[in-house]
Amino acid sequence: MTDPIRLSKRLIELTGCSRREAELYIEGGWVSVDGVVIDEPQFKVGDQKVELAAGAQAVAPEPVTLLLNQPADQTSDSALPGITAETLAEEHRYGRRPLKGHFARLACAAPLQAGANGLQIFTQDWRIVRKLTDDIAKLEQEYVVEVGGEIAEHGLNRLNHGVKWKGRELPPVKASWQNETRLRMAMKNPAPGLIAQLCASVGLTVVSMRRIRVGGVSMGKLPLGQWRYLSAKEKF
Question: How many structural domains are present in the chain?
Answer without folding.
Answer: 3
